[in-house]
Design brief:
Helix content: 25-40%
Strand order of the largest sheet: 3-4-5-2-1-6
CATH topology: Beta Polymerase, domain 2
Order of helices and strands: HEEHEEEHHEHH
Number of helices: 6
CATH superfamily: Beta Polymerase, domain 2
Number of strands: 6
Strand content: 5-15%
CATH architecture: 2-Layer Sandwich
Low-confidence stretches: 113-133, 148-203
Distance between the termini: 123 Å
Radius of gyration: 33 Å
Length: about 210
Amino acid sequence: MDLRKLQRVIVDALDDIKAQDIQVFNTTDQTDLFDRVIVATATSNRQTRALAAHVRDKVKAAGGHVIAVEGEDTGEWVLVDLGDAVVHIMQPAIRAYYRLEELWGAKPVSLKAGPDAKAGAKRKPAAKRVSTTPSTSNAASAPKATRAPKATSAAKKATPVSSTSAASASAAAKPRASKTAATTATKKTGTRAARPAASPARKRTPGS
């Protein structure tokens, strides 16, 4: 399928299910794996799944090829791999945290109404970024993104406790244990020292 046609089919499918803040990026100069990254926001797990399924069905109906769909089990971030294009459908907190626009947004593609676009369709304004950092369950539920290797580095930010913090906590706990052991040893030593060793019984000799 022609790349422009594929892009148009994807955007129209996202518009059908009311996706928010749809953005298309040209990635031909950044990777050889795909030529377009399309990012859209959904407000619920149900909507992310519905958007992914609708994109998949529309692309198949237009003669395109769907390689994989990942993340439908949780619905917080669903990735649709269409070969020449990769679609990321994310909830607001996940999108604000991973910021795929900073990874792939060097060349944004303007979304102009084409002959297949619905007449009078208006795209909703960009959703405000949510400052709340997603929980570890959100990070764990992110799709593997096999077609977007650069996005995996952001997953490291989701680790709640660093190895350095864990080592510091462990080191801080050791002195207390050793101090307690030393105090116990001192008490035991003092107790033993307070008891003089018993002198051997004096043998009595006849006439003493």
